[in-house]
Amino acid sequence: MKQLNLIVLALAIVAGFLLTIWLDDSGPPAQQAAQQSTQDNRAPLPVFDITALDGNTYKISDFKGKIVLLNFWASWCAPCVVEFPKLVELAASRDDLILIALSNDIDKDKIENFLAKQPDAIKEKLKSSNIIISRDEGKKITEDLFQTYKLPETILIDRKGRMAEKIVGDTDWTGEELKAKLSKL
Fold it and tell me: What is the tally of structural domains in the chain?
């Protein structure tokens, strides 16, 4: 009886492994697009709109011709808190770049409190027209469209509106390697 249980367990493990490999190959559309983006034929972005905290609504297609950093973050996420000022510094230093900071906070007040606590230099840079702070209500873009569950995560979007790369985790947005990567978009 023990041998039969071990055989059944081994078969279940092998079946689970094979199912995982098969499911990983198909992946959701945004994930497939990000995987394809490492090739010369970058995948187009899914179509979506965002509404900034100031009430302005934008279509992602409004930013063609610019490099876009679509950053998924939250005020309660420690790595996001560390990364946020670096992203703002980068965006404020480049006219050809748009930062869309899409918060996963449930409450708009949490975002506004977070922004209010930023150093004065960052608060001033947040006024730049190329920095858009928004809240992803119901995580419709973050989870439903891009299948992003770990924060922070940033999608690099090239000037033609295609996904170029997905960067997960706190990143040094002021580093030379990243600046070179952005210049190729």
Answer: 1
* Cα separation values, 151 from 41, 77, 79, 184, Å: 27, 7, 8, 25
Distance (Å, whole) CA 149 – CA 72 = 9
**Residue 8 located in a structural domain:** no
Fill in the amino acid letter for 26. Answer: S
The DSSP call for residue 155 is: E
Q: Which residue in this structure is represented by tokens 């996420």?
A: 77
The CATH number given to whatever domain includes residue 101 is 3.40.30.10
Asked whether residue 15 is assigned to any structural domain, the reply reads no
Per-residue pLDDT tens over the stretch 28-46 = 444 444 444 444 568 788 9
Domain that holds residue 76: 29-183
Q: What is the pLDDT of residues 68-102, one digit of tens each?
A: 999 999 999 999 999 999 999 999 999 999 999 99
The alpha carbon torsion through 93, 128, 54, 165 (nearest 10 deg) reads -20
- The radius of gyration computed from the CA coordinates of the chain, to the nearest angstrom, equals 19
In a domain, 19, yes or no: no
Return the closest-CA partner of residue 68 out of 25, 99, 22, 110: 99
d(CA 130, CA 91): 7
